[in-house]
Design a protein that fits this description.
CATH superfamily: Stage V sporulation protein G
CATH topology: Arylsulfatase, C-terminal domain
Order of helices and strands: EEEEEEH
Structural class: alpha+beta
Mean pLDDT: 93
Number of strands: 6
CATH architecture: 2-Layer Sandwich
Number of helices: 1
Distance between the termini: 27 Å
């Protein structure tokens, strides 16, 4: 399946968040991914919602490591090309 970035919105005023991203993958459109600078490097965070328990819960996530790695690698490549 092919990953296609629909939108990259680079931000500068949100701590650790570098961009918001929308993608299409395998016939699905996923809005609200975030590129985040974490303690162990830059990564892609999937959309989350705050539950009644006060914790955040993913509403979309990759079903396996290969899919997660494919999506994350492509998004980060597109982001890096954009900010050059």
């Amino acid at each position: 399946m092919e990953v296609k970035v629909l939108r990259i919105n680079v931000v500068e005023n949100i701590k650790d968040v570098k961009a918001f991203v929308d993608i299409s993958y395998g016939g699905l459109i996923i809005n609200g991914l975030k590129i985040v600078d974490g303690k162990e490097g830059r990564f892609v965070a999937y959309p989350q919602v705050k539950g009644k328990d006060g914790n955040y819960h993913s509403i979309v996530k990759a079903g396996d490591i290969e899919t997660k790695d494919t999506i994350e690698k492509y998004i980060l490549e597109q982001y890096n090309n954009r900010i050059k």
